[in-house]
Amino acid sequence: MNQMLQDAEVETSQAEISQADITPDTPAVPPVSEHPRFAKPQRVAFVQACWHREVVDACRVSFLKAIEARHITNVDVFEVPGSFEIPLHAQILAKTRRYTAIVAAGLVVDGGIYRHEFVADTVIKALMDVQLRTEVPVFSAVLTPQQFHETEVHQDFFRRHFVIKGIEAAEACANTLLSLERLRGQVAAGIAG
Known about the structure:
The chain is an alpha/beta fold. The chain has one domain (40-188): 3-Layer(aba) Sandwich (Rossmann fold). 46% of the residues lie in helices and 14% in strands. α2 (53-69) runs parallel beside α5 (152-188) and α3 packs parallel to α4. The protein is globular, with a radius of gyration of 17 Å. The active site is at 115 (proton donor).
C-alpha cells in the first residue's frame, strides 16, 4: 500500500454514537483519539430514500455523528421516494460542484414491479457512473437483504446494521476526501500526474 493511502487510514469508532444508538448486540470499539483535518472546508450531500425510513434513518443519524467527528460539518440531507431515484439526484447535486462528496442510503427489498436485485444493481452502477463522470466521489449505503420481512426482529436487525453502515460511510467519505485533497495538491505542485 502506498504511503499516501497509509497516511489517510483512520480507525472506525463506534464511540462516536450516543448510548441511545447502541443496543446490546452492537459491538463496542474503543474510541479513536483524533481525526486528520482538511486544508479546505468540505461539503457533503446525503441522499436518503424514504422507503423503510425507520430503518434507513439509523444510517443518516450515525453518519452525521461520525462525519462531524471527522471535521466535516457541512452536510445537506436530501430525501427521495425510493432508492431508484437516488442516482438522478446524486448526478444533479454533483454537477452543481457545491459538494465534495455525495452519500446515498436506502433499503431495497422485494416488492413492487421490479426485482430488488435489479434495482440495487442499477442504483449502484448508476452511482458509479455519476462518480466517474463528475469526479465527485459517491458512497453507497444502499443495501438489499436476501430476505426481509416486515417484522420487528428484522427491522431491529437492519436498524443496527444501518448504524454500522453510516459509520463506515463516514469513514470512507472522510478518508477519500483526505486522499483526494492530497492527490490534487500533488498534481497542482507537479509531483503526481
